[in-house]
């Protein structure tokens, strides 16, 4: 294909940036998502292939550093083009891009016959670019907070750290889905766009996706060499200072705090740790009245407990008077209880009201120690019917 049949779109620098970004993104996704979903079979396989969680964390941090350096370089190159070379900022979104998005939606719904005619960058490409910028800002800030949690907690509330973890993982998942669904479709499935690898796009593809760029070719930018050198000098002084601060900040960022970097070592004397220690019942003291002679009321309600309670407590807590809405003449009434709740709680004599109330001095119906011991044992055995 001759030069007349293709259009030069991306410089060597932009293609190198894209390659580094692509590698860093894949590495970050492959090492980060398994940490977000550690129980997934795919995550376990990836972590095992990388040599374990600690190796994955180291690789993840290395890719993050590469991405931070790439961001520094890209910002510098963009500012150089804008300030020194006076290249128009064609990647900035305009109102026409929103109109094109609306026209594209109508075209996809069959309401318009032809797609919108767009210029050097389509609204889809601009959306992807600025979504990437936004994602890098979010991932960078939250990554800093997770890498340096103690430093973060000195300036922000502690709740920001778990919030940063959620935002970091959610933004990463969103970025991966955007690449797999949006980017892969527009660049690889709809038509394989090789311009980020070769630098060129065929004229036929340009006429289909960027017809306005062919109809209004860019005019050469005429610059005064002396003025350009002066702007370049001022740019490199300012950018050099910013880049130096950026690099110093990265050094501090990477080495200033080891809280989230150092993995705790193995627990000492693991072999001596008692792995199985069954619980034994806590010994309790026997109430003094149980140590005395116990009245034989039988082992169940029908054997004698019911008759005893009906005879001694039924006058006040029977079907006629039912003081406190309590009937102790029937087994169901004793378990149901009254206003104070169940009178008998099987297996728990210490908190059964029938024993608590009859032990009070102001209660008219008090039990002798032997009677109290018999009721205690009956309840302790589960208050069988």
TrEMBL record:
Gene Ontology terms: cellular component: plasma membrane
Gene3D superfamilies registered for this protein in UniProt: Transmembrane di-heme cytochromes, Chain C
A GO molecular-function annotation: heme binding
Pfam families found in the cross-reference section: PSCyt1 (PF07635)
GO biological process, one term: respiratory electron transport chain
Key words of the record: Membrane, Transmembrane, Transmembrane helix
TM segment ranges: 20-38, 58-80, 127-147, 167-185, 235-254
Domain Cytochrome C Planctomycete-type stretches: 313-361
PANTHER family: NI/FE-HYDROGENASE 1 B-TYPE CYTOCHROME SUBUNIT, NI_FE-HYDROGENASE 1 B-TYPE CYTOCHROME SUBUNIT-RELATED
UniProt protein name: Formate dehydrogenase, cytochrome b556(Fdo) subunit
Natural source organism: Candidatus Thermoflexus japonica
